[in-house]
Amino acid sequence: MSAPVIMTVENGIAVIEINNPPVNALSQAVRSGLIECVREADADGAVDAIVIYGAGRTFIAGADIKEFGKPPQEPHLPPLISEMEAVSTPTVAALHGTALGGGLETALGSHYRIALASARFGLPEVKLGLLPGAGGTQRLPRVIPVAKAADMITSGAMIGAKEALDLGLIDEIAEGDDIRAAGIAFAQDLVKAGKGPRPTNARPCNPVTSDEMAAIRAKVTKAARGLMAPVSCITALEAAVSMPFEDGLKRERELFMELMQTDQRSAMIHVFFAERKVGKIAEIEGVAPRDISQVGVIGGGTMGSGIATSALLAGLEVILAERDDAAAARALETVGKNLSGAVKRGKLSQAKYDAIMADQFRTTLDYADFSNADLVIEAVFESMEVKQDVFGKLDAICKPGAILASNTSYLNINDIAAMTKRPQDVVGLHFFSPAHVMKLLEVVVADKTAPDVVASGFALGKRMGKIAVRSGVCDGFIGNRIMNAYAKAINGTVLAGASPYDVDRAMENFGLAMGLFSVADLAGLDIGWANRKRMAPNRDPRERYAEFADKICELGRYGRKTGRGFYVYEEGKRGGTPDPEVLEVIAQERAAKGIQPTEMSDQDIIDRYMAAMINEAARIVGEGIAQRPLDVDITLLNGYGFPRWRGGPMQYADTVGLEKVLNDIKTYQKEDDYFWQPAPLLEQLVAEGKTFSSLNG
Ligand code: T1G
């Protein structure tokens, strides 16, 4: 393996190249190579200036996250950057790709910064439950306005080269795309102009008033909702504003080391790697996906239009079929609105919007128009009969090799595939509403689905900017099956003594955007009601069925759309208010069932909710529906709003301890020993003293 850092000297310019694919992460070898080269160059009387740049596609994209959690190795990055900053030879960071985290901190410790026009810059440590721990919180506010520094550090968002130049983060945007040559030319100009070192730490922090700082802290604290890192970022920034540089650097280090010990940090780094690992499955390793350029969508409702929008934004040609002109017109309007939203958000240019609407998208009433489609996705009514009819027709119309996909959220893909002569081409592509916004895509693999069709589902997901997760066939696949389980547990919790309002409060305090009953009111209680009626014939008589939701529906209360559900909704008011009549319905059911309600703390409620989620997830992994626990985590994080800083239900289970979860389940069994059956995998892992993460490979 060649050295990750090499230096050449050309006409008095020491050029240090960092070459540690894929993203030039600051591994121990890179750190030691970098500081050795800087020391050697600074001691070389023939060297007038030093240029540091990254080989390959990017400058340094940060510390090597793979080293986190392992014993830290010298040289540590903070003193390395400070030593580099103090050299007497002017240093230039030549930036391209994404200069992120420790990479941007290394650039901030350089005296000057030049970048390609396509370069981007960020301090995303907060997305890992950390803060910039190598001087970023101390040097950035010395280079750009404090408020902007606060925004970059607490959001982790990247900025482009033009904004970086305007802010003063970089000194120049280079012409062309040869960052090495641009760095050398910039250094030569420095030497000609007689410019020496310009250490960032010698610059004062940009001005900010204490009121402005207080307002920044208040805003960040409110938005943090349980996250520790953003608040620590502000504490470090306050040190930059109020302390001498070295003291601020010490304070930053203290705060960084505190965050390194937190469960939030280990959860968010778990998510970082899990989101990259979830697409790596043996069955598609080395399997080429089929070419997809024309996509057919059947059904122009919310889901179908969202899927069409997502495909259009991915650059695919889309034909959307509806049953009549009016429905087709509505679909066209919905897709147009979705794309206009993308234009407003800066995700799509107006010119691109016009081009899409002119010749990349059209509607039809005739499935015959799908004869040349590479992929057809149906998003019709959730009825097996309707879907089987659609697939029978598609089988006769579509060309050989075309992929036929169902967006069903729980129906059996094997039964749908059986309506075709090409079961190997049939797959489930379960999008989440709104499909052009939600990142999760469940690729549901039926018994006969071909590996290259599975690979095509993953490739489509990546092209759409989504995260695809492989699911086997079962009722509800991964996400909805788990949601059905924890909804039953929550209904049991309400029967046992909690109110729907206690539950929603506890879930929101846990970090979910909304509690289960608020979500149900928003989605429409009639949808869940129809589902429960569908499942009723198969309901096991031993199930302790909670009826209060059905009773509320029988009163014609379907949630927001009818003005009443679990909550009462008044015109012009955002949220709903608790409804005493709902509490009465629940009290009557408890009485009829002979249940004496018990007091429940928020923690009691969360313990039950999470035990149900973890137990069903353990079943799903044990049955092979999800390949690994990380697949469940990624599903719940990207499709169901599970708090990212908790890492997902399986990561959370490892954090609280599987033995505790199992013991909780055994306690609840006394109330309902039908629902609370421990999953075999959970019992096995507890018996072996193992964690779910031990199954992630
Ligand atoms: N360390 C180790 N591996 C990394 C890495 C990193 N910083 N960044 C990416 N990888 C791996 C990734 O796991 C994947 O591996 C491959 O590179 C391609 O990544 C002291 C403490 C740079 C925008 O948070 O945002 O600096 O799956 O699929 O879509 O204050 O990677 O191929 O085996 O994401 O083109 C701060 C994280 C670290 C940046 C490229 N830096 N990376 O996106 O490729 S903490 C970050 C990214 C820090 C200092 C602190 C993205 C990217 P594999 P990829 P991509």
TrEMBL record:
Residue ranges occupied by any 3-hydroxyacyl-CoA dehydrogenase C-terminal domain in the UniProt entry: 476-569, 605-690
CDD domains named among the record's database cross-references: crotonase-like
Pfam families the UniProt entry points to: 3HCDH, 3HCDH_N, ECH_1
GO biological process, one term: fatty acid beta-oxidation
InterPro entries: 3-OHacyl-CoA_DH_NAD-bd (IPR006176), 3HC_DH_C (IPR006108), 6-PGluconate_DH-like_C_sf (IPR008927), ClpP/crotonase-like_dom_sf (IPR029045), Enoyl-CoA_hyd/isom_CS (IPR018376), Enoyl-CoA_hydra/iso (IPR001753), NAD(P)-bd_dom_sf (IPR036291)
Reaction catalysed by this enzyme: a (3S)-3-hydroxyacyl-CoA + NAD(+) = a 3-oxoacyl-CoA + NADH + H(+)
Residue ranges of domain 3-hydroxyacyl-CoA dehydrogenase NAD binding in the record: 294-470
GO molecular function: (3S)-3-hydroxyacyl-CoA dehydrogenase (NAD+) activity; enoyl-CoA hydratase activity; isomerase activity; NAD+ binding
Pathway: Lipid metabolism; fatty acid beta-oxidation
Record key words, sorted: Fatty acid metabolism, Isomerase, Lipid degradation, Lipid metabolism, Lyase, Multifunctional enzyme, NAD, Oxidoreductase, Peroxisome
Subcellular location per the Swiss-Prot or TrEMBL entry: Peroxisome
PANTHER family membership: 3-HYDROXYACYL-COA DEHYROGENASE, PEROXISOMAL BIFUNCTIONAL ENZYME
Similarity remark: In the N-terminal section; belongs to the enoyl-CoA hydratase/isomerase family.
Assembly, per entry: Monomer.
Protein name from the UniProt record: 3-hydroxyacyl-CoA dehydrogenase
Lineage: Bacteria, Pseudomonadati, Pseudomonadota, Alphaproteobacteria, Rhodobacterales
